[in-house]
């Protein structure tokens, strides 16, 4: 029913820095962060306004060399079928489908250009939750609001993701020397954009979280030890964005009004 909708955001931070990440994002977004009680490793769940919005974990020993990063998960009707389709479309399945007790079935994959993303097939729920529930809500602060792909071949990327998730291409905006910024939609609503690599060292996905006042959020990021890499700049729709890096090195972005509103 929600195939192709962004549904979860997961931070993997540096070893022994999980508590630092908890404190940082709690200060920046006001998230309430609690231990999920996983039996084999520590996994923290961040909540905002009663919705679970993100997971936080530290890199496993075998992956300790990976830089801290955010991973965006997309809802799929059938995780195994989606993983098979990824391979057929020229992508790569990094972590084969597996069950998460009490949650559903997940996998991790990369598109043909190398950008990594996750798949999540949630357990059936009765009654079915409303579309605006959960981690993704473009009308609530502290929730996922936008997703952005930087790719070595955004045209091929658009073909791959539209075939996999049923996304539809929207307006392509000319950014001059930076090329085109291609909007894409899920269920009739724009949810993200795709562009060339720009300053990104490798193809990657970037999550945007909604905030009530980008300027104030920037102040909280800096006060908590983070860094602003770009912005704030105005974007269509009278919103402002900023791209940031947390103290451990993971990139994320903000979107919302420039000043806090009541």
From TrEMBL:
<dbReference type="InterPro" id="IPR004360">
    <property type="entry name" value="Glyas_Fos-R_dOase_dom"/>
</dbReference>
<feature type="domain" description="VOC">
    <location>
        <begin position="143"/>
        <end position="257"/>
    </location>
</feature>
<dbReference type="Pfam" id="PF00903">
    <property type="entry name" value="Glyoxalase"/>
</dbReference>
<dbReference type="InterPro" id="IPR037523">
    <property type="entry name" value="VOC_core"/>
</dbReference>
<feature type="domain" description="VOC">
    <location>
        <begin position="5"/>
        <end position="122"/>
    </location>
</feature>
<protein>
    <submittedName>
        <fullName>VOC family protein</fullName>
    </submittedName>
</protein>
<dbReference type="InterPro" id="IPR052164">
    <property type="entry name" value="Anthracycline_SecMetBiosynth"/>
</dbReference>
<dbReference type="InterPro" id="IPR029068">
    <property type="entry name" value="Glyas_Bleomycin-R_OHBP_Dase"/>
</dbReference>
């Amino acid at each position: 029913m929600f195939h192709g909708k962004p549904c979860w955001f997961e931070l993997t931070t540096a070893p022994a820095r999980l508590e630092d990440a908890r404190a940082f994002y709690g200060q920046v977004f006001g998230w309430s962060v609690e231990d999920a009680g996983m039996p084999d490793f520590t996994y923290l769940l961040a909540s905002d306004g009663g919705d679970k919005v993100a997971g936080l974990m530290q890199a496993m020993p075998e992956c300790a060399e990976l830089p801290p990063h955010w991973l965006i998960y997309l809802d799929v009707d059938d995780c195994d079928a989606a993983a098979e389709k990824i391979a057929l479309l020229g992508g790569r399945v990094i972590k084969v489908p597996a069950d998460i007790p009490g949650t559903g079935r997940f996998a991790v994959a990369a598109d043909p250009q190398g950008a990594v993303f996750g798949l999540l097939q949630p357990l059936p729920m009765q009654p079915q939750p409303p579309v605006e529930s959960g981690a993704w809500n473009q009308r609530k602060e502290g929730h996922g609001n936008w997703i952005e792909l930087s790719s070595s071949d955004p045209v091929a990327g658009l073909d791959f993701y539209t075939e996999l998730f049923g996304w539809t291409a929207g307006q392509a905006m000319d950014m001059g020397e930076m090329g085109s910024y291609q909007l894409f939609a899920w269920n009739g609503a724009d949810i993200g954009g795709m562009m060339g690599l720009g300053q990104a060292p490798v193809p990657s996905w970037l999550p945007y979280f909604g905030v009530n006042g980008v300027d104030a959020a920037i102040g909280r990021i800096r006060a908590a030890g983070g860094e602003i890499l770009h912005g704030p700049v105005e974007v269509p729709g009278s919103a402002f964005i900023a791209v940031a890096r947390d103290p451990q090195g993971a990139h994320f972005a903000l979107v919302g009004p420039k000043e806090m509103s009541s």
